[in-house]
Amino acid sequence: MKLLPSDQLTNNQVKSGLHLILKDGLATETMNTLTAGTFLVAIALYMGASNVQIGVLAALPTFTNIFQLVSVWLVQRFNNRRAITVTAAICARIPLLVIGIIPLLFSDIASVSALIFLLSFQCLFASIAGGSWNSWMRDLIPQQILGSYFSHRSRLMQILNVTLSLFIAMGVDYIKAHYPAHEITAYAGMFIFSGIAGMWGVYALARTPEPKSKPIQDNIVKLFSKPLTVHNFRKLLVFNSCWIFAFNLVTPFFSVYMMKTLGLPLFYVITLNIVSQVSSITSIKLWGRCSDRFSNKTIIRICAPVYIGCVMLWSVVGAMSPIVLLPLLVIMHVLMGASNAGITLALQNIGLKLAPADEGIVYLVTKNIVTAVFSATAPLAGGLLADFFTSHFVIHLFGRGQWNLLFMSGAAVGLLSMKLLKTVQENGELDKRLLVTELQHNFKKQLRNWHHMPLLRRWFYLRTAIVLKKGLSLEFDDLIQFKGYKERQQNIEPIRQQNS
Membrane-spanning regions, if any (predicted)? Predict the structure, then answer.
């Protein structure tokens, strides 16, 4: 298969490319679900990892973003982003297969150090692939559908994440309960399967067309100093770095806190993460429309305070009774999922929007490298702070442990980043109140449409039947005369006739 760029792409080629990028996204999400996030934390804790080592694992994907410099050099030298992305992606998938095979052949050398060593190579080559991939997508995806397309892609990936996470968590908990000696075998199988799924994603990437880009001739040092001289782009870098530091300072330790301090089983932790993913799935389409219609900065100004408020709540959940704890965690994960979906999409799109077309890879890689420094140091700092607060503070604030001090620190940095957002300028930026009004309108519309939904109507009738069966003095004919029922039915009839 020839991996050469095309001088000009037809509409059919662009459509085919968008479809293949969706396939690659699903394959990549499968790979990341099995070998990152909560499952990686569970594997590391099984191997006896410390808080600092968990921080190192969380920092690897972002710290290795500095190797996107290599990606820029390769694009400058060969001007073939597809070949660079495919080759680096293959090299990034091989360590996952090795991690899975080692425990099956040499169980005595399966350790956290070996895990960190091999994952560092995986993250290194993934960063090289990511640099050229971003520039490739910048030219392939039409600008007018950028927000909608990536929101649709993210939605499909999150649906897969939710489904896969639930089944894997149930399987791992079953093995831990009935076959504890085979727990490491289950983790090894997860890595092998993730590597195979990743290779399938590489195959989809290899078939995706690439529009030929204008060669970059300048010196690399001059190239990367140029984005830093653009006043508005520099302000975006400052805000993005501060926010990503606040986010990664605490987020990698939510699962650790729930499993180690609150004592929740892995299935509960995964289920809460699924709640967050479902919330993200249901909101990402809305954020995509808002990104195209309003502005990315406005989305951040609404979503970031919500996420910061949830981080503050993490400081007090340890003092809650078990009856209140789980419902509160569910609400927090719903809010975090919806707000983080908007922030992630807005940060991605605003970076693409402010990057010039001819030098897009330089601006995007500069942004990734600068934010990578803060994103990588944040979980390391979080691990050190967690150990420091645990060993130096004897007063247990809000009931359990010293994690609350770490969460409060993350919230404080997040509030500081909101001050920096005000200085960033974005074309087409609108007043935040317009988006708030739009969100309120959508929410009220959903509330009005709830009684149109057949499933909810069936649930309503079923609950009524249960009440009647229990012997309560309530007649069905009286129940449907509930205030407003007839008026709602009259409103439904024109809608039904129009749909039919």
Answer: 54-74, 86-106, 112-136, 156-175, 187-206, 236-259, 265-287, 299-317, 323-347, 368-389, 401-421
**What was the pLDDT predicted at 357?**
62
Tell which residue, 182, 216, 169, has the closest CA to residue 364.
Answer: 216
Please write the tens of the pLDDT for every residue from 388-432.
776 665 555 554 556 788 888 889 999 998 888 888 877 655 555
- Closest by CA to 120, choosing from 104, 139, 141, 96, is 96
Whole-model pTM: value is: 0.62
Q: Which amino acid is at 198?
A: G
Domain boundaries, the chain: 11-430, 453-499
CB atoms < 10 A from the CB of 21, how many? Answer: 22
Whose CA is closest to 216, among 367, 355, 79? 79
C-beta atoms surrounding 375 within 10 Å: 24
11-430: CATH architecture: Up-down Bundle (1.20)
pLDDT tens per residue, range 434-488: 555 655 555 555 545 544 445 444 544 444 444 444 443 333 333 333 334 344 3
Please say whether the beta carbons of 3 and 80 come within 8 A. Answer: yes
Distance CA 13, CA 490 (A): 49
